[in-house]
Amino acid sequence: MRPVTSGRLLVPLYVHPGEGPEAWEALLREAPRLHAVVLNAADGPGDRPDPAFRAAAGRLRAAGVALLGYVDTGYGRRRTRAVVADVRRHRRWYEVDGVFLDQVPVHAAHLPRYRRLVLAAKVLGARSAVLNPGTHPDPGYAELADVLVTFEGTWEDYRRARVPAWTADHPPQRFCHLVHAVPEGRAHEVARTAALRGAGVHCAVPGTGANPWRSAPPPAGAQEVREHERGGTR
Fold first, then answer.
1. How far is CA 16 from the centre of its chain?
2. pTM value?
3. DSSP letter string over 80-123?
4. Could you tell me how far CA 193 lies from the centroid of its own chain?
């Protein structure tokens, strides 16, 4: 197993490989740009291994892409035993490198619980824990997560978003911005904005609706390639 290394795109692709094979193939073509891909078979690992997901995961792994298992934590309300069981299934069935803990609360009162969840995941072999409150939480969450998702929302909301001063105390690779409903040709603006706001990891997809994460990020254009080679700007 390998750790989740620094990169550009953390992609939550929430579509079955049988329903959206073109999106999975797009990820394979963009493998060098990927920080990690989040596997989400059924709002988690599901009740049994999915052969199509196993195959898709295997192809990404062979291409050198790190994999994260999606786990819903219910904003701190889901039982610890259920969360840990999902982590174990992801590791056993899909050989994920780490976990993506979703629906994380923002208040400091929940920090002890999430400290235990991250520790449990790592005891089970997860090399990386990504926490997703989808906004800026109490700064203590940045101490628990290997990567903290501090924005998840639409392009229009992202353009107006603000970044609290405490984020400057951490390196950019510790923060991720997930942006959907991105207009055609604007993905490079998300990349540039994320860098300027101190987030070294991001994702920009065109998807909208109840599940905007059914689509893969667009391929890198010439401008994005140049910015990637320069390492972005702060």
1. 17
2. 0.91
3. HHHHHHHHHHHHHHH--SEEEEES---SGGGHHHHHHHHHHHHH
4. 17
d(CA 203, CA 181): 11
Taking alpha carbons only, the member of 152, 187, 147, 153 closest to residue 167 is 147
**CA 233, CA 230: separation in Å to the nearest integer?**
8
Q: Could you say which DSSP state residue 165 is in? A: G
Exposure string for 215-234, b = 16+ CB within 10 A, e = fewer:
bbbbebeeebeebbeeebee
Q: Are 64 and 34 in contact (CB under 8 A)?
A: no
Q: Which letter does DSSP use for residue 222 in this model?
A: H
What's the token pair of residue 181?
């409903």
127-174 pLDDT, tens digit each: 999 999 999 999 999 999 999 999 999 999 999 999 999 999 999 999
pLDDT tens-digit readout, 101-111: 999 999 999 99
**What's the distance, Cα to Cα, between the start and end of the chain in Å?**
32
Buried-exposed string 28-49: b where 16+ CB fall within 10 A, e elsewhere: eebeebbbbbbbbbeebbeeee
